[in-house]
What we know:
Layout: E1 4-7, H1 17-21, E2 26-29, E3 32-35, H2 42-50, E4 57-60
Antiparallel strand pairs: 1-4, 2-3
Bound molecules: iron/sulfur cluster.
Amino acid sequence: MAVQVTWDKDVCIHAGNCVKTLPQVFKVENGKFVIEPSAAADDRVRATVAACPSGALQVKD
Length: 61
Ligand code: SF4
């Protein structure tokens, strides 16, 4: 099973790193931010979460 990723919209500073780094997982659809962790390898999802500058993204273990 893919890792679970949570996103806190009040913390996100919309730096866009996640959507630029892994667009197949982090994307905006119909104006809503969606996360599809199964669309990439776990380690890539984890690395992108770790690179989020605001801490809005978290991996649930
Ligand atoms: S990387 Fe973090 S701060 Fe930047 S858009 Fe994604 S969730 Fe928001």
